[in-house]
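Bench log, entry 3. Co-assembly request; chain sequences pasted below exactly as received.
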Amino acid sequence: MKKFFISLTAPALAFVFAIAVTWILLIATGHNPVSTFKSMGSYGIKPDSLTLTVNLAVTYYLSAIAVAIGFRMNLFNIGVDGQYRLAALVAAAVGGVLHLPPVIDVALIILTAVVVGAIWGSIAAVLKTRRGVSEVISTIMLNYIATGVIAFLLTPSLLAVAVAGSSNIGTRPIPANGQVPGFKLLAGASEQVYGMIGLAVIVGFGYWYLLNRTRFGFDLRASGLSATAAVASGVDAKKMVFRTMMLSGAVAGLVGIPTLLGISYSYSLDFPTGLGFTGVAIALLGRNSPIGVAFGALLWAFLDSSRQILDLTGVSKEIVTVMQGVAVLAVVVAYEVVRRYRVVQQQREVGKHLGSEHAPVEAAVQS
Amino acid sequence: MDSAKASAVELRGITKTFPGVVANRDVQILVRPATVHAIVGENGAGKSTLMKILYGMQEPDEGTISIEGTPATLRSPADAIARGIGMVHQHFQLADNFTVIENIILGSEPTKGGRIDFAEARARISDLGQRYGLDVDPDARVEDLGVGDRQRVEILKVLYRGARILILDEPTAVLVPHEVDELFSALRELKAQGLTVLFISHKLDEVLSVADDITVMRQGTTVASVVPHEVTARQLAELMVGSELPSPQTSESTVTDIEVLKVTDLTLTGADGRQLLASVSFVIHRGEVLGIAGVEGNGQAELVETIMGMRTPSGGRIMLNAEDITPWSTRRRREAGVGFIPEDRIRQGLLLEAPIWENRMLGHQTEEPNVKGFRIDRAGARADTERIVREYDVRTPGIDVMASALSGGNQQKLIVGREMSGEPVLLIAAHPTRGVDVGAQAAIWDQLRVARAKGLAVLLISADLDELIGLSDSLQVLLRGQLIATADPATVTPEQLGSAMTGVKVAS
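Structure output for the full assembly:
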């Protein structure tokens, strides 16, 4: 219980600090912080805003878990962005031509996204294990390459068709069998929550189970805690990098699925971008824990949806981006402070506990 | 020597406790000015802790420190430096890509108009060098210097800050014999100039040749003060070890003729093309302990890591129970019953920020009782961790504390317990009792003996020659990656083994 309380302190402090910085910034730019936050708050809790929050949080969560898988073994998969966009495009294109029974259709679309994401993610793994290229660099590069590949594929001569009633182009729309209906979560909301919210829950549970209950998860965590000790324990470092990047990419492939199967049914030029980077921030915010990341994703999504009101109040929406950025920076610092505190605290507790016994030196003399 | 005024350093009743361990207990030391005062004791006798207290790195729980007759409270090394105490660490703390002069002045640079006054620094350094016979090229880069030169830089660094009392922590551990001679003549020079030197060592011959006074430490406390011409090395050793202490003597031989590990012509080439291991061949039988003696850094770590499958040999063969395991992965070797006590437990043996019970799984995360199929068997792993904690006397309030919360000795006991679980056929033990207290050391020795009697084959690497001689059934000497000599542990003395380690031929 005490442990739980301590682990909540860091994000809470970081968030308070972020609000404080935002507060000062608002005053400095001649705005009223109280009314700004008030209007954001009252707009944010409207049923439709909350529905949007949940929907955003679902995609954010998937993205953050994809990043967190890498983080747990000190692999920085900055390439979730490219992985999910490419995966969503290919999955959308496949979905557009499939005409299968409902469940199988959806399963096949999801499988396509997972495979594409895993393949794209494994490119960085091959570069790292064979050529020693840092995955930070290669995944960032691969994001740009993904953008280029998507631009190449999303043309009328290949995968794209004109979107009816606009100058936009996108993949052939996924027919009804491949769509996943949403549902109304809140009374009074006109919008629906993605049916794929279940996918996020399954991924979250799977992530927890894999890491804490399986051999593979132990190898992964051991590699993250001490690469040298992991190697000495028999972990094949190269294989581990490969598998982890594949897994991270596979989950990244899911990021676009709720949007694709829940609302857009097609990958068009206005398909959401940048979710991979949001995932990095949220993974940090939630400290790679399945529950922490869920809270982080909801918070982030709440800020994103409630800031829509700022257009009407004359305050720049970017103030929320500042707040999110400060929160992430502060939380990283706060977690480190709390972590060190806990290490020292535990050493002290062990010392206190053992102080009541005979010290080992004395025991040795008696024997 | 009678009045406190006459002493350079006086420590009275110093006691220091760490979580679970009394590191120093009622320590009494009186150091006369302008002498070389040696503090001797086994590994883990509390010498380093005591020196850290004197250098302000740790505060004592009880006791008083007087420096040149006046009481001192040392809260940080800065306090100690202000009182004229300087420390030369065992592991050099130099910036490799800086020159000698830059390293010496680092942190106390003389300035002139806001810029570093190199002329002034150079003058002072060359003056110090001449006065104490410590010659180093002030413009050489430290990375180009040998060990002996680096040590002189460290000493100059301390003198530059105005130290009158120098603490040298195991200064000869890294030196070759002629460098030791040079160091000793420098120490005599320092003494002649009125400086006081505290010299920490466990090499008795050196201590007897250079020290004016000797204080012996055992189990965290000072047990005797002697002068060199009144004691022999043997008497000193007895004082250090204490007659009631256990010795690592093995009883009758349990060696069989069944080969467990057979290493043939093992060769390992480093990334820079250097030969790290050259045609190493040996056999360990069931129930046999093979000891490898050698000065650290002569290929021990490489040998161990190659046998564990963490490095790929460039030639040769490793056979385990008549099976060629050379191409096997580390995991497969471990699953085949190879236990591993690594030299550096923090780097290779533990996950510091994971609970003890997860550390019990490390290296055995594919074996019973830790897993069932692909799943972790939490209950099994936890129960077995409880067993190890009990049987190996790991002092901890529970199995959910992080490994970082344990003292070094208890971490080591956990590792030994873990590696002895599941009836290994071969144990690779690098410094199995390093940093553990005397009681735990005896317990680990007992465990090794019992396992050996049951047929365990052990490859033992240790810097403790008594441990090597006492536990081993046969001994080999490793020098520059080659096995250059064999010795019979029944007849060889630590002195003979010590000289064999430096390449001197020994009759055996």
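Residues 356-367 of chain A have pLDDT under 50 and may be disordered. The beta strands of chain A are 160-162, 169-171.
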